[in-house]
Design goal:
This protein is an alpha/beta fold. It has a single domain, classed as D-Amino Acid Oxidase, Chain A, domain 2 (2-Layer Sandwich), CATH 3.30.9. Helix content is 27%, strand content 28%. The chain contains 7 helices and 15 strands. The strands form 2 sheets. Strands 3, 4, 5, 8, 9, 10, 11, 12 and 13 form a 9-stranded mixed β-sheet that branches. It has a 6-stranded mixed β-sheet with strand order 6-2-1-7-15-14, covered by helices on one side. Helix 1 links the parallel strand 1 and strand 2. Helix 1 runs parallel beside helix 7. The protein binds flavin-adenine dinucleotide.
């Protein structure tokens, strides 16, 4: 292929934006990059997951290859976010104390190695002693973690991408191949579309949370005996607090349920230390409903070679962990592109 080449990235969620920024670092002067998406950070579609995320980082214990791979991506993202929060104050990322209280810990939480695999890298990580646990709680930990004001962080990434010369286009693709026709000389399309656009293994996990004005200074997660989870996540830059949350597989209801809101807030009153000036009442900003883009078998990170020597590099299906894995996934996608010689290696500054 001769002449200037354009790399097309599909998706302006946290994965598309993080990946596009990583790709930009490796572009040669004969290459440019175009980010194409149906939704951008100011949009509020229920099908655009990123602006609805809490978001905080809470490790997921496990010893399966998938769990270990995600643990590695999460660890790299943690280190990267530490750097971002220290150097880019407007990014919407802040480090706070994280606490977990589990009433009925699943087996992987009781397996020392599984816990070690995913928690040991966290600043100040320690298991809580029996006498430190609230009534009814069987397992607890505390550590330093980050919280993200998700729409602010996505807008921050988009701004950086544009400042570095990236082009953007709002467009809804009918299929993946169409992306090759959106610019001249497209050899590589990077598919960070959340659900993959054409993947039958993709499914959604509905999440309902409630954004309130009441402040908290920690992110606390509590697992209840009935298997449900409660959490509070402070949103940096005075963004309020997210009270969560549900995980409902294949539930396509776009409307918030008032009963769910009531249950989430009632649990939050019991378990989370909101300051007394709120008088036990919540100042609700809005209900949130979003669809986590999940995939059977986990995320797809794969370079698909087409018959005409073009490539679709896939990076989607992050489910409930898109922010936590974002930098690691972006690096893994770029590593694949380097391996296939779709980009040239350059030292990271
Ligand atoms: C309530 C809730 C709480 C969450 N909490 C957390 C948390 O605490 N921590 C965490 O890490 N994650 C959390 N998540 C999950 C997180 O939001 C997702 O994993 C993440 O946003 C996925 O990012 P993405 O870029 O893959 O997809 P998306 O953000 O959905 O972006 C997909 C992009 O592809 C574009 N696109 C799709 N189809 C087309 C098409 N046909 N043509 C053009 N463009 C297209 C979309 O417009 C969009 O720009 C939460 C999610 C929800 C809903």
């Amino acid at each position: 292929m001769s002449g200037r080449e354009t790399i097309v990235v599909i998706g302006a969620g946290v994965l598309g934006l993080s990946t596009a920024l990583c790709i930009q670092h490796h572009l040669e002067f004969t290459q440019s990059i175009l980010l194409v998406a149906r939704d951008f950070p100011a949009d509020t579609s229920v099908n655009y997951a990123s602006p609805w995320a809490g978001a905080h980082y809470r490790p997921v214990p496990g010893s399966s290859p998938q769990a270990l791979k995600e643990a590695n991506q999460a660890q790299r993202t943690y280190d990267f976010f530490k750097h971002v929060s220290a150097h880019e104050p407007g990014s919407g990322i802040e480090f706070v104390q994280g606490i977990e209280h589990l009433e009925a810990p699943p087996p992987e939480y009781l397996d020392k190695q599984s816990v070690q695999n995913v928690y040991s890298h966290l600043d100040g990580f320690r298991a809580l002693q029996k006498e430190e646990l609230p009534a009814g709680v069987k397992w607890g930990v505390q550590y330093g973690t980050y919280v993200v004001n998700s729409p602010v962080y996505c807008a921050h990434l988009l701004r950086k991408f544009v400042l570095k010369g990236g082009e953007v286009r709002q467009y809804t693709l009918a299929n993946l191949k169409e992306a090759f026709s959106l610019a001249t000389n497209v050899r590589t399309v990077v598919n960070c579309s959340g659900t993959g656009i054409e993947d039958l293994k993709s499914f959604i996990i509905r999440g309902q949370t409630c954004l309130v004005r009441n402040p908290v200074s920690q992110t606390i997660t509590r697992q209840n005996t009935d298997g449900s989870w409660s959490f509070c996540i402070p949103r940096p830059l005075d963004g309020g607090t997210i009270i969560g949350g549900t995980k409902e597989l294949n539930n396509w209801d776009p409307n918030p349920s008032p009963e769910t809101r009531q249950r989430l807030l009632a649990n939050a009153t019991k378990w989370f230390p909101f300051t007394s000036e709120s008088g036990g009442k919540f100042d609700v900003i809005r209900d949130i409903v979003g669809r986590r883009p999940a995939r059977e078998g986990g995320m797809r990170i794969e370079a698909e070679k087409l018959a005409d020597d073009r490539y679709i590099v896939h990076g989607y299906g992050a489910g409930g962990r898109g922010f936590e894995l974002s930098r690691g996934v972006a690096e893994d996608i770029v590593a694949l592109m380097l391996e296939k010689r779709l980009l040239r290696a350059k030292a990271l500054l």
